[in-house]
Amino acid sequence: MPTTTLSPRPMPERRLPVVAGGAVVALALPIFLIAGWPVRGWALGAVLWAASQLLGLLFNRVGIGEPNLRGSGVVAFGMMARGILLMIVAVAVATTNPTLAISGALVYAAAYSLELGLSLTIYFSGEAK
């Protein structure tokens, strides 16, 4: 069992998880409107999620011209920086408006959680090398 789980697999396509995360963000808007929650919080979560996707795409593109760069520390640092940059924005908003930050974080967390779960399911259901 551990060797099956730890064996490398090819990187799966990311379109489906990203679309699913985007659907969560889109479906959160009517929930915010019906519940009377601050729409600015939804907008913050949507912007954070979209910025995360754009930064991920940018850091993924860094390694296209150089095959060895994709597995290097440059891309790993970029992915870590993606999370740090988003958290800086979230903390800055939380210091001025905690309610806005919480509602934005809920939207981002829901979209990211579905995207991550779907990505892991696709990855581990793939054929091991």
Q: How many domain regions?
A: 1
Strand content: under 5%
What distance lies between the first and last C-alpha atoms, to the nearest angstrom? 15 Å
Output the radius of gyration: 17 Å
Proportion of residues in helical segments = over 70%
Structural class: mainly alpha
Number of helices: 5
Low-confidence stretches: none
| E-strand count | 0
Order of helices and strands: HHHHH
Described by the principal axes of the CA atoms, the overall outline is: globular
Query: Can you summarize the main beta sheet?
Result: none
Mean pLDDT across the residues is: 84
Structural summary, described in words:
With 129 residues, this protein is mostly helical. It has one domain (13-125). It has helices at residues 2-6, 15-35, 39-61, 73-96, 98-125. α2 packs antiparallel against α5, α3 runs antiparallel to α4 (73-96) and α3 (39-61) crosses α5. The longest helix is centred in the C-terminal third of the chain and has 28 residues, at 98-125. It starts with a helix and ends with a helix.
Summarize the structure.
With 129 residues, the chain is mostly helical.
Describe the secondary-structure layout.
Layout: H1 2-6, H2 15-35, H3 39-61, H4 73-96, H5 98-125
Helix pairs in contact: 2-3, 2-5, 3-4, 3-5, 4-5
Keywords:
single chain; 129 residues; mainly alpha; 5 helices
